[in-house]
Amino acid sequence: MLEKLIFGRYIPGQSVIHNLDPRAKLLASFYFIGLIFLCNNWQSYLLAFAFTLVVIKLSGISLKFFIRGVKPLIWLILFTVILQVLFTKGGTTYFEWGVISITQFGLMNGAYIFCRFVLIIFMSTLLTLTTAPLALSDAIEYLLRPLKVIKFPAHEVSLMLSIALRFVPTLMDETEKIMNAQRARGVDFSEGNLAQRMKAIVPLLIPLFVSSFNRAEDLAVAMEARGYQGGEGRTKYRKLQWRMKDNMVIIAFALLTIGLVFLRY
Amino acid sequence: MQIEFKQVGFVYQPNSPFEHRALKNVDLTIQDGAYTAIIGHTGSGKSTLLQHLNALLKPTEGQAIIGDRVINKESDNKNLKSIRQEVGIVFQFPEAQLFEETIAKDIAFGPKNFGATDEELGDLVKESLEMVGLDESYMEISPFDLSGGQMRRVAIAGVLAMKPSVLVLDEPTAGLDPQGRLEMLEMFERLNKEKGITIVLVTHVMDDVVNYADNVVVLEKGTVVKSGSPKDVFDDVQWLKEKQLGVPTASEFALKLIDKGLQFDELPLTSKELAAELAKLSVKKAGDASC
């Protein structure tokens, strides 16, 4: 069930993209999402797609994966696209019935929104597939550091984030185990109506919460025993390094931006 | 109830980069009423195999015949409840599965799912509590107030209350104190001998294997590499050491004695056998001396 979800997982590798600085990747992904909204004609979408495909090629991960990553979201995408198609007015009208109409602009908008969704999902999937969760949380800590000026607890947030990320697989395993144990005791998680299914979740949820509390307690004690006293005066084991190829990312995105702006106007 | 595996194979997340083969060509028969031990390294596929015993997992190749049900790749997920009731599984650290407000309710949870009536439940709960060595005073306590060992007992009682005819135990004594360990293992033996419940035990403790099991199955990298009686499996000490599986303490000690020049008729596996062999030797020695 959970294993179908590709988004948010990490595939270890040694490609150019894998070895980029996580800060570069994180910023680039956010920037790309903003950039997509510059696209307003088919040439610009073509350019954005070409760029994305090149980057995916560079990562050495098969495109099939990314397509599979879109699949769980396909209903959400289609729903939005259909709403756009049915309710946008303008241009040549091909079909009209009450408030519903299929128009030239509607179809165009629908197609654009579809492209935007796919591009955003591809790029963010690429980020998580090629970046180890801990590297990502290091990057977030670094990028949040300026916010210390306004008393934002950057270290605490990033600590929570890295602990949370570290325990996602552990908790998933635990969920799986408890689910199996309860299934062996006759619980059916996939049968019955909504109320019955909700009730079947209780024997899963309570043990999960209890074990999370226990785990948190153990972890806190273990951290204190090893001398953890908060963020002040700590040194770092994993140092982030900005290298030449990270500059290339900036150049590539600058070129893409220029290209898109040029195609737009 | 007999469980038979025919060329069972299992692959986790097939056709993805996370694909992982856990079982391959497993042929295995668990006789009705037998006490079977499954041993093997961490990651040899023991736990995956266990989950096939009550159809939590379906083989991706071959078939598992559980009682009169055939489970293969195509079998649907409906009506598996009868199998789940017949084959009770106690997973590793089963105390993690407790969730009800009181111990009585938690133990009753399994049988209730399988349709036991309220009158039956009262007796079932008492009976299973007694079996794991706890008395009635525990019935209304919250399971979360107990010690780790007691929680384990309650969890096991919850599985026993389903009245399974096959009991599958995944390292049931891991992390228990020596006394609790012994009590629990003796309880499983009693269930096997007196009530005729088929037992499948996964363990890393070779002493438990030779002390209790009738059959041993050795798993390695997802395949059965050896199976038979403890005598058959533990006879070849060299092979065991190669596989880094460990030898029962009694055998280990006997081997040291053999190095010092003692001779045994056969390699003792349990401390009882060792003592018997030694007694025989000393009688012989006394006989030799008196001549």
From TrEMBL, chain A:
InterPro entries, alphabetized: ABC/ECF_trnsptr_transmembrane (IPR003339), EcfT (IPR024919)
Keywords on this record? Cell membrane, Membrane, Transmembrane, Transmembrane helix, Transport
**Which subcellular locations apply to this protein?**
Cell membrane
Q: How does it sit in the membrane?
A: Multi-pass membrane protein
The answer, when asked if Cell membrane is one of the entry's keywords, is yes
Locate the transmembrane regions by residue number: 73-91, 246-263
User: Would you say which domain of life the source belongs to?
Assistant: Bacteria
Q: Per UniProt, what is one GO molecular function of this protein? A: transmembrane transporter activity
Tell me any Pfam family this protein matches.
CbiQ
Q: Name one GO cellular component term.
A: plasma membrane
What's this chain's function? Transmembrane (T) component of an energy-coupling factor (ECF) ABC-transporter complex. Unlike classic ABC transporters this ECF transporter provides the energy necessary to transport a number of different substrates.
List the PANTHER family hit by this protein, alphabetically.
PROTEIN ABCI12, CHLOROPLASTIC
Q: Which family does it belong to?
A: Belongs to the energy-coupling factor EcfT family.
* UniProt subunit comment: Forms a stable energy-coupling factor (ECF) transporter complex composed of 2 membrane-embedded substrate-binding proteins (S component), 2 ATP-binding proteins (A component) and 2 transmembrane proteins (T component).
Official protein name in the record: Energy-coupling factor transporter transmembrane protein EcfT
Say which species the protein is native to.
Vagococcus coleopterorum
Give the gene that encodes this protein: ecfT
From TrEMBL, chain B:
Q: Which InterPro entries match?
A: AAA+_ATPase, ABC_transporter-like_ATP-bd, ABC_transporter-like_CS, ABC_transpr_CbiO/EcfA_su, ECF_ABC_transporter_ATP-bd, EcfA2, P-loop_NTPase
Domain spans labelled ABC transporter: 3-246
What stretch or stretches form a coiled coil here?
A: none
What EC numbers are recorded for this enzyme?
7.-.-.-
UniProt keyword annotation of Nucleotide-binding present: yes
- Subcellular localization: Cell membrane
Source organism, top-level taxon: Bacteria
* SUPFAM superfamilies linked to this entry: P-loop containing nucleoside triphosphate hydrolases
Q: Do you know which CDD domains this protein is assigned to? A: ABC_cobalt_CbiO_domain1
GO cellular-component terms in the record? Answer: ATP-binding cassette (ABC) transporter complex
The way this protein sits in the membrane is described as: Peripheral membrane protein
> Of which family is this protein a member?
Belongs to the ABC transporter superfamily. Energy-coupling factor EcfA family.
Task: Give the record's subunit note.
Answer: Forms a stable energy-coupling factor (ECF) transporter complex composed of 2 membrane-embedded substrate-binding proteins (S component), 2 ATP-binding proteins (A component) and 2 transmembrane proteins (T component).
Q: Per its database record, what is this protein's job?
A: ATP-binding (A) component of a common energy-coupling factor (ECF) ABC-transporter complex.
Q: Which NCBIfam families match?
A: ECF_ATPase_2, PRK13634.1
Would you tell me the protein name for this molecule? Energy-coupling factor transporter ATP-binding protein EcfA2
Q: Which organism is it from?
A: Vagococcus coleopterorum
